[in-house]
Amino acid sequence: MSDKPMKTATKIVSLGRDKKYSMGVINPPVFRASTIVFDSMEQMRHAARHKHNGEMFYGRRGTPTHFSFQAAIAELEGGVGTALYPSGAAAISAALLSFLKAGDHLLMVDSVYEPTRDLCDKVLKGYGIETSYYDPLIGAGIAELIRPNTKVLFLESPGSITMEVQDVPTLARIAHEHGLTVMLDNTWASPINCRPFEMGVDISIQAATKYIVGHSDVMMGTATANAGHWDQLREHSYLLGQTTSPDDVYLAARGLRTLGIRLAQQDKNARTIADWLLTRPELDHLRHPAYPSCPGHEFFERDFSGGNGLFSFVLKDGSNAALEAFVEGMEHFKMGFSWGGYESLILAITGIDRIRSATRWDSSKPLIRLHIGLEDPEDLIADLTAAFERYNAVMGR
Ligand SMILES: *Cc1c(COP(=O)(O)O)cnc(C)c1O
Question: Which residues carry this modification: N6-(pyridoxal phosphate)lysine (predicted)?
Answer without folding.
Answer: 210
